[in-house]
């Protein structure tokens, strides 16, 4: 059985929304923790990094069948 040629438009839109939501949750969570603990902006940047890493992992897991 051959793999599909590529993801459809709906899957790509879902992938973009998932990635954006995960990054936004990382930044928002980092900001909230930074404000609650008084740690400042550094925790927000850590949240950004974590959100981007999780978004990349989620994107890879969803598109690996096309590789």
Record keyword descriptors for this entry.
67 residues; mainly alpha; elongated
What would your notes on this structure say?
This protein is an all-alpha fold and 67 residues long. It contains two helices and no strands. The mean pLDDT is 92. α1 packs antiparallel against α2. The protein has a domain at 23-66. The protein is 78% helix and 0% strand.
Count of alpha and pi helical runs: 2
Quick one: how many beta strands? 0
Largest sheet: none
H/E series, N to C?
HH
The percentage of residues in β strands lies in under 5%
Helix content, binned percent: over 70%
Overall mean pLDDT: 92
Give the structural class: mainly alpha
Shape, principal axes of CA atoms:
elongated
Question: Alpha-carbon distance between the termini?
Answer: 14 Å
Rg: 16 Å
Low-confidence stretches: none
Short structural summary:
By secondary structure, the chain is an all-alpha fold.
Question: How does the SSE layout of this entry go?
Answer:
Layout: H1 9-37, H2 41-63
Helix pairs in contact: 1-2
């Amino acid at each position: 059985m051959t793999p599909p040629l590529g993801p459809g438009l709906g899957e790509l839109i879902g992938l973009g929304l998932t990635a954006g939501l995960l990054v936004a949750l990382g930044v928002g969570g980092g900001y909230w923790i930074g404000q609650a603990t008084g740690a400042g902006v550094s925790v927000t940047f850590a949240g950004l990094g974590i959100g981007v890493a999780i978004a990349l992992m989620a994107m890879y897991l969803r598109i690996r069948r096309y590789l």
